[in-house]
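User: Structure please.
Assistant: Input sequence and predicted structure:
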Amino acid sequence: MRGAAYRAAPTVASGRKVAKVARLLGISDQTIYVWRRQHLVDTGQLPGTTSSGLSELAAARRRIAELEAELAIHRRAAELLGEVTSPKGGSKRSA
């Protein structure tokens, strides 16, 4: 949660209507509900993945995509050079 989410949370918690707060911030009602639910998860009041966990997961997915792209480049280079390598990194050709 960032910026507007931190401003919206106490406003909604103080009893103001979600629709009014959303209109003031120029966002949808649903966004406020999502932020509120994420706040409850982050504070341990609801089960789920915390904001920091979601950030780590996104970073891990980006890194996996980078590694998969790099692997595809290496495999293509190996094809062009006529080498066949095991996906497990073995250096010997299997018969």
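The two ends are 55 Å apart (CA to CA).
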